[in-house]
Each structure stands twice: as structure tokens, then as C-alpha cells.
Amino acid sequence: MIDFGDFKGAAAKLELADLATVAEEAGIELAALRAVVAVEAAGSGFDKEGRPKILFEPHIFWRLLDEEDREEARSEGLAYPKWGEQPYPKGSDAQYERLVDAMEYDQSAALKSCSWGMGQIMGSNHNLAGYGDVETMVFACMDSEANQVRMMVNFIKSAKLLTAIQSHDWAAFARGYNGPAYAKNQYDVKLEAAYQRFSAE
User: Fold this and answer.
1) Which of 32, 79, 95, 117 is 20 to 30 A (C-alpha) from 19?
2) CA distances from 143 to 38, 137, 187 (A)
């Protein structure tokens, strides 16, 4: 088992110049990339303790966990078969408590069951984000927000969403990035509003 300690790395904050560099390299308008960052992680990739922002998804953990462990994990509220079966606990501490408990069953599956950092990329998508394994991805997230943004851009490219963000087709982008239920949380509306705000600066 790899020791992630308390999930606190260098936790380097993102500078606007870093974001501009990543945007230019990817061929994405800076205001558009800023909008995605603002909506997906409220503009920050770390919590108040300096840990990457995460959201532990029990329905993903259920899918990735060995069948013989599922019911026990379910009794602890760590796994269940359908999204939305239970409300998410509030606060970063509660999310990390869930993650640490889940890691006792299967470390890799637990890490893959979280969305990470500024782009809230699922650990299970580590390949799309440019990493050969989820553990390397997590350490990169712990190191800097710049790494988190690059990871997000890699995912956007891999998921063939580059054209959507370049053309400001926020509904198509939100559908690909957040799934078919994106409209329920008005991701496309929030992205459009954030883009307009940053474009006006």
C-alpha cells in the first residue's frame, strides 16, 4: 500500500500566467478555460487544509470493488450500486474520511472512485488525464494546481471536447464533461455565465 500521508503535498497555487500558458498550448481561449476551472472547483483545487479537492463516489467504488467486499462496504456507507442512493456528506474532511476508509478495502479502487482537483477528474480516468496509474495522478494533484489544470486539459482532449470548448458550445461541453444529467445542475448555464464574466475583464 502506497503511503499518501495526509494527502498534503507542495500544494502550489495556480498563477494566471500558468493558466494562460496551458490555454495557449492547448489552443483554448483563456476566458473559456478560466470558466471551466471556476465552475468545476469554485476556482481552487485545494481545500483549506491544502489537500486536493475530492468527491468520493460510492457508486463508482461499488463497481470497482471486488464482489465479496461490496456488502460490507455498503454497510459502512462506502459503496452502493446506484448514483444518488444516499446524499453526499458535506465538507472535505468527510470526503477524505470516506476515502481513507475505502482504501482499507482496495486502495487503487478507492482512489479511482474520487474526482480530483480543479477539474474534478475521476481517478478512474487517469489514462485520459495523462497518467499511467491513479497513484501518480494523485501525487501530481497534491503537488500543484498547474498539474491539475494540465490534467484537466488532457482529459478534455482525450474526451474529444476540445472543439466544444473552443466554440463555446457549453451544452455539448457540459454533456461530455459532466454526463447526461448536466442540465440538472445547470452546468452549461454556469459555464456560459462564467465565460461571459471572464471575457469582459
Assistant:
1) 95
2) 20, 10, 28
